[in-house]
Amino acid sequence: MEQEKRSDKDSVEKFDIKLKSKPKDGIILQLHHTVRGSNGETRRIRFSTGTFDDSQEKLACADNAGNLFILDFTELKFWKLAGVGPSNALQFVPHKIGTLVVANSKSYEISFLDIESSRVSLTLAGHTAPVKHISFSNSKLNNLLTASPVEAILWELRNYTKYFTLNTYLGAQIQQIMFTPGGDYLVACFQNDTVQIWKHENMKSVKQIIPSELKHMKSIAFTMNGRAMAMSGHSPTLILFSMDTWKALKSINLSKMNISGAQQIAFIPQVFDGGANKVLAVLSSDCTLNFIDLESVTVIYTICTESSGIRKFVVSPSGKYFLCVLQLGEVNIYNSAHVLDMAQSAKGDNVKEEAPCTSAHRRIPHDLSPSKVEVEQKMKCCMDSARLRRILMQYGEYPDKYRSAIWRSLLNTPRNKVAYSALIDKGIHPSYKDIEKQFTIHSSATLKNLKRLLSCLAHWCPLFAVMKFLPEFVFPFVKVLQKDPLLLFECVATILLNYCQLWFEYAPFPPISILAMIENILAEHDQHLLNHYCEAGITSQTYALKIMETAFSEVLTCSEWLILWDHILSNEACFIVMAVVSYNIVQRNAIKRLTTHEQLENFFHLQNPIDKKLFLKRAYVLLNDTSEDIHPRKFFNSFMSLDKGDCYQQFTGYPKATICLKLAKKERKQDLKSNKNTLKELTKKSQEKQISDRLHKEADTDNKSVNSSFEECDYKNINKTKKAQKSALCTKEFLENVMFPKQDHKNHEEPKPSRKVRDSSTCKSSKSKTNKRVQSANKNNNTLEKEVQKLLITGSNSDATE
């Protein structure tokens, strides 16, 4: 790496780097710093140390001239910072993004440096010797440990004070000191071959270890789960110590592996090792780096360089990378996966020489490639939630190949085949029968799976038949888990049961409680952004509810969505609330440029570029630093998995009366939509049916009258033809009254038929006059005649009933 001329002090100029995609020797990048003097001669400046930040994929390296170099493996950029002087210790601040702690080896000061602007935000003074060790506690984020060979200081960063000071004496100086991975203990290794352990909570000494067979102790290392500690020194002995039982687990003779002694040791984390870390890297006394498999107690790989020996090495927290600082001052950066893959595929015990300025590796015959059965057995052992979380924190995501199995383990799905079959047997729910009309889904298989899932949810709980956002919420889960419909249903049901708590307490209205929590959290952590929303007239229904209802699928890419839900399902239920707030805060700069309601609303329906690691980091900060008074976990219930058995428990977190009313309205609307007849037409059809039934009844019973009017006349000897004529007479008389109403009811009222009159001449005379007038009326309004006839028959039926 050739450094260009220094740019202006107020700006940081960045340069491109190129990583080897498939390095044969595992080296993805080599660093060296050369400067050219006035006489044209080049001079190499040696690198002294380095440190990794896995969350941002960054590396910081310091040289003896006081220069700091930052390498960004994501953006493939590097830049030079104006350092604070020569340094032997660097460490990224875990809870402050882009902040580096630098220990000055001349002034003995501890500086907090911004890696983008090169500005020092804080300086701590108090050491009397150069600091060589910097460590942060995972349990107390505000605790910083710095140590020189003669003293160690525990700082409280909230008020920048010394919380604890450890002074040593000549002959018992500090070789190494650090926090355990869990942050529960503080462990120090001294020159007098003693290991001292303090309880971090009260800094009381809990254990002192003096191994009799280990002399000239130099280094200690911990597994990622913090359950085991390795100790080594100049003598060819390696001791594994249990932090649970406070007893030695194993003593390994390194001389059998041609290792005379160890200068430095560190564990190499691997995927699905549950934090136990079976591979230990040992920097031997002959300046070669050996990888030891602690299960088989064999050296599986050795790194030694032709040009120079290895002076020290640094492993990233997740084990993804490690670097070797050579004695000539160069830095070789390795990809751990490539190195371990070469170790697994190595079959011969030969030494293969690489190109100049690269490494020569001695390959040990030990095939570590596991079979499928062995992998499945290891997966079962590692599938508890605590181990899975450790893997997630190391690598940032779960492997795509095992994601469905991991989600099943995290959600503890019961695999109730009988209960699921009962839901399937109910068929497609009417609410989702025409779901393809609402969404454009090109894959018929995906559409089928979506319909089946939504129908099962609706049959399981009536709430899910009326929630309009549900198809958009479950669709990404269908895409990921559609190969296993049972797992898909149980995963979504468990998510709705736990991670969507309080979403439906006001259904079908918005979840006011959840939105209020989000607004309170945003007000505590970014009041300016909340003020911007208020000025633009934007409520939480726009910047929060839209994200929640689509499960982040509209604002994140597929890979980003999978990573986010890896973290959501691995944490407590309220993590999804923090993720919503985190998305808004991380996108603050883009959001503040939008002023109108339409622009802001569209923003939360688009996949906007986002730093996924910064997004997740902010979510964890919100989860840990939010005040207890407004923290969502105060209102959330603990995780509850689906019951194992022949049926699933009911989902009850919604107002049943409101949902039932909405279901009734929806069913009525569907019935009206399926039957397009108006109320008048329905009445007309009902009356026609009644007339048809009565005519059939008259045909069967000849001696019965048609209606009550003819019963009053008491015509016992009239035949069927005369009965029909009388019915027509009454109909036409009624039509005459409707079509030609009389002005004076008293003077023109026609007499009613008398029971004593038996002559039909009156009826015949009236019939001839009425027919003429009815025929005229039929020409004007034929429909009215039919309607009146139906009404007359209906009226006759009611009269007869009375």
From TrEMBL:
Residue ranges of the region described as Disordered: 672-706, 741-802
Record's keyword terms, sorted: Cell projection, Cilium biogenesis/degradation, Coiled coil, Cytoplasm, Cytoskeleton, Repeat, WD repeat
Domain Rab-GAP TBC, chain residue ranges per copy: 397-572
Listed SUPFAM superfamilies: WD40 repeat-like, Ypt/Rab-GAP domain of gyp1p
Matching InterPro entries: Rab-GAP-TBC_dom, Rab-GAP_TBC_sf, TBC1_cilium_biogenesis, WD40/YVTN_repeat-like_dom_sf, WD40_repeat_dom_sf, WD40_rpt
Major location (coarse): cytoplasm
Comp. bias (Polar residues): 773-783
Short name of one Pfam family: RabGAP-TBC
Subcellular location(s) per record: Cytoplasm, Cytoskeleton, Cilium basal body; Cytoplasm, Cytoskeleton, Microtubule organizing center, Centrosome, Centriolar satellite
Ranges of compositional bias, category Basic and acidic residues: 672-703, 742-761
UniProt KW NAD keyword: no
Task of the protein: Molecular adapter which is involved in cilium biogenesis. Part of a functional complex including OFD1 a centriolar protein involved in cilium assembly. Could regulate the cAMP-dependent phosphorylation of OFD1, and its subsequent ubiquitination by PJA2 which ultimately leads to its proteasomal degradation.
Protein name: TBC1 domain family member 31
Organism: Chilo suppressalis (Asiatic rice borer moth)
